[in-house]
């Protein structure tokens, strides 16, 4: 990963979340070879953000059609989020994930959670200032999206009725995106 790009990504997160991250990596030789230089940034809770935030750094290459970075929230510090985001980044390099795609985690999000999928969503808690980082080198924005853990039946609902209807269900039920044991909204 280009050192200058890495610094721009880290600075973008720091500015938006007013917090300094701890840099983490997951030790897996095969994956690290495919996504060389990839890191996960761990942001501890602050007075403005009462949750842990884990964010990718180097998930995409700038040669991709739609380069993206992802973040996920947790009510507790959880090193499993480093592994989860690393595996999603690896999958992205093979399958070019984008906004409103879903990804199968292959494991519960946390503990015995029934949320074993992720929905790539707009960063509703942070807005367009986090979503967009303009890069001169590609003359477009690097996109920063929220990876929301969801249930398998919520994935099926999205496929049948569309992402807007699923998000309406999230709003109607006032779902707790930090609760790994939350009930499905459908």
Task: Tag the structure with descriptive keywords.
single chain; 186 residues; alpha+beta
Tell me the fraction of residues in β-strands, as a range: 25-35%
Q: Kindly, what is the distance between the CA atoms of the first and last residues, rounded to a whole number of angstroms?
A: 40 Å
Oligomeric state: single chain
Structural class: alpha+beta
- The count of helical stretches stands at 6
- Average of per-residue pLDDT values: 95
How large is the radius of gyration? 16 Å
Biggest β-sheet: count, sense, barrel? Answer: 8 strands, mixed
Describe the structure.
By secondary structure, the chain is α+β, with helices and mostly antiparallel strands. The protein has one domain. 33% of the residues lie in helices and 25% in strands. The protein has six helices and eight strands. The protein has helices at 3-17, 29-34, 80-95, 128-131, 152-161, 163-173, and strands at 22-24, 39-43, 52-57, 68-74, 102-104, 115-121, 132-135, 140-151. Strands 1, 2, 3, 4, 5, 6, 7 and 8 form an eight-stranded mixed β-sheet that branches. Helix 5 (152-161) crosses helix 6 (163-173). The radius of gyration is 16 Å and the shape is globular. The mean pLDDT is 95.
């Amino acid at each position: 990963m280009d050192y200058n790009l890495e610094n721009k990504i880290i600075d973008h997160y720091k500015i938006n979340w007013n917090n300094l991250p701890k840099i983490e990596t997951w030790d897996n030789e095969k994956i690290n070879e495919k996504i060389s230089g990839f890191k996960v940034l761990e942001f501890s809770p602050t007075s403005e953000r009462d949750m842990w935030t884990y964010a990718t750094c180097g998930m995409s290459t700038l040669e991709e059609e739609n380069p993206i970075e992802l973040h996920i929230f947790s009510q507790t510090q959880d090193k499993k989020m480093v592994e989860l985001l690393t595996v999603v980044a690896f999958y992205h390099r093979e399958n070019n994930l984008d906004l409103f795609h879903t990804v199968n985690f292959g494991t519960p999000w946390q503990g015995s959670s029934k949320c074993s999928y992720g929905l790539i969503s707009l960063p509703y808690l942070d807005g367009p200032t986090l979503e967009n980082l303009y890069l001169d080198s590609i003359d477009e924005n690097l996109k920063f999206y929220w990876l929301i853990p969801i249930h398998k039946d919520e994935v099926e609902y999205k496929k049948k009725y569309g992402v807007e209807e699923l998000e309406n269900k999230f709003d109607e039920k006032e779902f707790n995106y930090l609760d790994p044991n939350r009930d499905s909204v459908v």
